[in-house]
Amino acid sequence: MEDQTALLAELNASWFASGLEPETAMRLAGLARSYSAEPGQELFREGDPSELFGVVIRGRIALRTLVPERGPITILTIEPGDVFGWSTVVPPYRSTSSATAIEPLEAIVFDAAGIRAAMRSDCQLALALYPRIMVAVSRRLNATRLQLLDLFAAEQVKTW
Q1: What local confidence, expressed as pLDDT, does residue 61 receive?
Q2: What's phi and psi for 83, nearest 5 deg?
Q3: Considering the domain 34-155, what is its CATH architecture?
Q4: Which of 17, 22, 50, 110 has the fewest CB neighbours in a 10 Å radius?
Q5: Angle, in degrees to the nearest 10, between helices 123-159 and 22-31
């Protein structure tokens, strides 16, 4: 999957890059590289500097957050076509959750320094990507809200 044509085809098949202007999609593919991880491999930790932004091609990723007195709780499972590591392009560039591969993972990733520099120097790229990144952020917020509702509901059952 390493050549740019293959990376471009994989990106275009994802909701994240689907419909990008051809030149923008080519620019994005030029920044990309393949990435793989085995089940159980941690991709990043909550609170650490965010160094990896990507699109899942095959496999799934569990996003987890640490809940006091409960330990790590999965707040969302990232499926093929979806993005992970959006914190890489949103200040203060710190991971807002931990991510672990739960199936053999193949992804297309963008290193932090490269994608940030490209978005700073290419307004068209930034204009195309930021709304898509906001969709991912919105999904995470909604999933977190639902998870919190589940946690509070479980607490209510215990107190009755």
Answers
A1: 97
A2: -100, 160
A3: Sandwich (2.60)
A4: 22
A5: 70
Which residue type occupies 142? N
What is the 8-class DSSP label of residue 2? Answer: -
> How many CB atoms are closer than 10 A to CB 92?
7
pLDDT at 142: 86
22-31 and 4-12 helices, crossing angle to 10°: 120
Domain spans, the chain: 34-155
CB-CB contact of 126 with 116 (8 Å): no
Residue 42: helix, strand or coil by DSSP?
strand
- pLDDT of 1 reads 44
- SS3 string of 119-151? HHHCHHHHHHHHHHHHHHHHHHHHHHHHHHHHH
Contact (Cβ atoms closer than 8 angstroms) between residue 141 and residue 147: no
